Amino acid sequence: MIRWMLLLLATLIPTALAAQEADMLIIAHRGASGDRPEHTLAAYELGVRQGADYIEPDLVPTADGVLVARHENEISGTTDVADRPEFADRHTTKMIDGEEVSGWFTEDFTLAELRTLRVRERLPEIRPQNTAFDGLYQVPTLTEVIQLARALEEETGRTVGLYPEIKHPTYFEGLGCDLAAMLVEQLHSAGYEGAEAPAFIQSFDIAPLRRLNGMTDIRLVQLVSNEGGPADDPSRSYADMVTPEGLAEIAEYADGIGAAIPLLLGEDGASTGVIEAAQAGGLLVHAWTARKENIFLPAALRSSADDAEEGAMEVLIRLLESAGVDAVFTDDPGLMLGTISD
């Protein structure tokens, strides 16, 4: 912790100067999911009211081809579907991106059926306060998310950006469902077109982003994790993709990377060099994910052994800001805004 704090103190003056030159964007990760069940209209709205520049809906399809916001197409952890006897026969096991997954899946429900379900907090042990909202919200459609963004823009006078992720696009392509084309058609129809539009499209897979690069001028972001590799190219690792050579290849089809924080900051809190290399190659760098609870923070920033207790997320934000990232995904937009506004 001492090393992190010393590094933080050394960055305060440069951070203040950098903030005058360019703002670090706040992306409400699944909405303000530290305070409301994720991927609900309530979470997205709260994220904007807490100061987020963008809201992030993860998108999966229904059986009748409607894009809806869920972190995964398997929904037993985020809805009450397991308690609904009328859908007991929908329980199944599927192979998704090389992993066997059991449960209930959005692609096996029509939108009308899905709308009978109610959303639950995905992490009740970590965020017990959010369980007070269990049962209040429906699974939202992308159409509703866009309508909410427009309404909040009109009310607040601020631009509210969209940052959708297409989930498991290669898997869904195998089912005859082209998530990339569906998303672009809907965004273009809603007026999100061109590189200046307040929108980004993100994916962990490579091929869908390459296709999107020929379909739209909306900015594209290659997601990279600190482990594993893209599901549509098992020969690659994300570690290889953030080398100078890998970043140069990404720059051929994408406008930025969405990188796991451990790829960007070392164990001592110093930059690993990925940020500088990416930006030197013309790529934006968006970091994921800043969360306030101990379980999600580096060991040096945890306040106790209690996973659910709040740690020093503010220190992490300061270090990311000093390192020069262009944006941060966060479950806690209000806390992040208060940190970068100090």
From TrEMBL:
Listed under catalytic activity are: a sn-glycero-3-phosphodiester + H2O = an alcohol + sn-glycerol 3-phosphate + H(+)
Q: Does the keyword Acyltransferase apply?
A: no
Q: Keywords in UniProt for this one?
A: Glycerol metabolism, Hydrolase, Signal
- Provide a Gene Ontology MF annotation, just one: glycerophosphodiester phosphodiesterase activity
GO CC annotation terms, alphabetical:
periplasmic space
User: Which enzyme class, named as a word?
Assistant: hydrolase
Could you tell me which Gene3D superfamilies the record lists for this protein? Phosphatidylinositol (PI) phosphodiesterase
Which residue windows are coiled coil? none
Q: Which residues form the signal peptide?
A: none
Q: Which family does it belong to?
A: Belongs to the glycerophosphoryl diester phosphodiesterase family.
Its recorded name reads glycerophosphodiester phosphodiesterase
